[in-house]
Amino acid sequence: MALKNKKIIVVSPHPDDETLGVGGFIKKLIQQDNVVKVLTVSGHLPPLYDRSDYELTVKEAKRAYGIIGVEDYTFMEIPATFVGDEPVNKLNARISSYFQEFKPNIVLCPFPDRHIDHRVIFDSVMVASRPVNFGKDIELLAAYETLSETHWNAPYIEPNFNHNLIVDITEQIEAKLDALRLYKSQIHETEGPRSIDAVRALAKFRGSQAGFSYGEALYVIRQTY
């Protein structure tokens, strides 16, 4: 996928989701002279976490951005798992305002999976991305998968991630993994579904489905090319 001079907004529920889901694609887009903005909606904030936990993940995120090349980012600071407590009209308006200001050509958002924040944020992105006004300039709207939440849905009862696009990230896989390693509070090298080993294995599998060494999968919701 070769793109140039496009504006991409990646909506990330929490710090690390953007790199887990599309870290390689982000790196590739920036290498192709596109502008990428990361909008992180939620994070490890009180009442469930200490403020210091959140500040650590934000610090880690900024270091990870340095690896994948992101220079434009915003943290909305809604407490994790409390995104659904925001009035719908207020949350929609906040996210839409970033879209209206940035005027993206491509929108990448979380798949509505097991995590409640992912589902609520997906709904708000769908509202912000409607093909009216500035939304008419959105050429691609797609959802990405994030280990582990996307694969914990109950098959056939909840939506399942059935991708219809795979991006070749063979040249970007090591940068993606190096960026993830900077999320030391979130990512383990070998253990668990969000480990470096698991991320590499998923990228290897996705790539094998399309003839690449490594890939990232997306579900295309709307495309106007």
Describe the fold and architecture.
This protein has 6 helices and 7 strands; from the N terminus they run E-H-E-H-E-H-E-H-E-E-H-H-E. It is an alpha/beta fold. It has a single domain (7-223), classed as Rossmann fold (3-Layer(aba) Sandwich). Helix 4 links the parallel strand 4 (106-110) and strand 5. The longest helix is centred in the first third of the chain and has 18 residues, at 51-68. The two termini are 12 Å apart. The model has no long low-confidence stretch (mean pLDDT 96).
Task: Compile the SSE list and pairings.
Elements: E1 7-12, H1 17-31, E2 35-43, H2 51-68, E3 72-79, H3 88-102, E4 106-110, H4 116-128, E5 140-144, E6 165-168, H5 173-181, H6 196-208, E7 215-223
Parallel strand pairs: 1-2, 1-4, 2-3, 4-5
Antiparallel strand pairs: 5-7, 6-7
Q: Which features would summarize this protein structure in a list?
A:
225 residues, alpha/beta, Rossmann fold, 7-stranded mixed sheet, 6 helices, 7 strands, 37% helix, 20% strand, globular
Question: If you compute it from the alpha carbons, what radius of gyration comes out, rounded to the nearest whole angstrom?
Answer: 16 Å
What's the CATH topology name?
Answer: Rossmann fold
Please tell me the CATH architecture by its name. Answer: 3-Layer(aba) Sandwich
What is the domain tally? 1
Helices and strands, in order, run as EHEHEHEHEEHHE
Describe the oligomeric state of these chains in a short phrase. Answer: single chain
